[in-house]
Amino acid sequence: MSLISVIIPTWNREATLENAIRSASKQTLPHIEVLVCDDGSTDNSREIVRSINDSRVRWIEGEHSGKPAVPRNRGIKESQGEWIAFLDSDDEWLPEILEKQFIFANKVGCNAVCSNATRYVPSQNYSGTVLENFNLGESISFSELLNINYVICSSVLIKKNIVNKCKGFSECEKLIGVEDYSLWLRAATFTNFAYLNEPLLVYRDDPKFSIRSSISSSFYEQKINILKSLILWIHETNYNKSK
Questions:
Q1: Any alpha helices (H) in the chain, and if so which ranges?
Q2: Running DSSP on this structure, what letter comes out for residue 155?
Q3: Gap between the Cα atoms of 128 and 126, Å rounded
Q4: Contact at 8 Å (CB) between 26 and 57?
Q5: Count of CB atoms within 10 A of residue 74's CB?
Q6: What pTM was computed for the model?
Q7: Please, which residues have CB within 8 angstroms of residue 214's CB and are 6 or more apart in sequence?
Q8: Whether the Cβ atoms of residue 175 and residue 226 lie closer than 8 Å to each other
Q9: What are the structural domain ranges in the chain?
Q10: Which CATH fold would you assign to the domain 4-107+153-184+210-242?
Q11: Is a pLDDT exceeding 90 seen at residue 241?
């Protein structure tokens, strides 16, 4: 069984961080490392991580950048696994998410896999599935992703070599809040995303604590910036030859 590196970026989320870490450490597929990648937290996050008695869990120090891409990229560099899984520090996995996704990715023949999620909105006391209105098949192609971002970041399990080919998450200011979508599009030029239509995690959708709430640009502007970044990446990496 290949090692899976779980990357948890965090900034001042002491209220939810421990639950996120424990949801990773309780996986039915236990051959993992958990990298908690800090972005300059000033709360008790470090102490919470150090109190968890699990040798697989590591605290990765970092100065505050205000960009989710920065701690994620730090985790990618530190990771030892053949596969990488991403988990936001306010989300929680079901115990079988990694095992189910790993098996399904191999069954479908994809080097990346994602799933549905239960959306939890604390301020509205609401829960439901994130992708309940979409009829997706067993895999998501580049052309499908180009239309809509169906990939929930905290559900992604992907081969590390694919992430490296894509140069990780973009740290461009204009892509803050959509840097994950930008990476999924790049990754989808190498592999489809296998898709499990099961809510295998709890996605905490709380606008008060989301970085997206501070973004002033419209979705149209964000999409234009994503496409510009994609075209630039294709040009810089000489995509046709690299495939």
A1: 14-25, 45-51, 69-78, 97-108, 142-147, 160-165, 179-187, 219-236, 239-242
A2: G
A3: 7
A4: no
A5: 21
A6: 0.93
A7: none
A8: yes
A9: 4-107+153-184+210-242
A10: Spore Coat Polysaccharide Biosynthesis Protein SpsA; Chain A (3.90.550)
A11: no
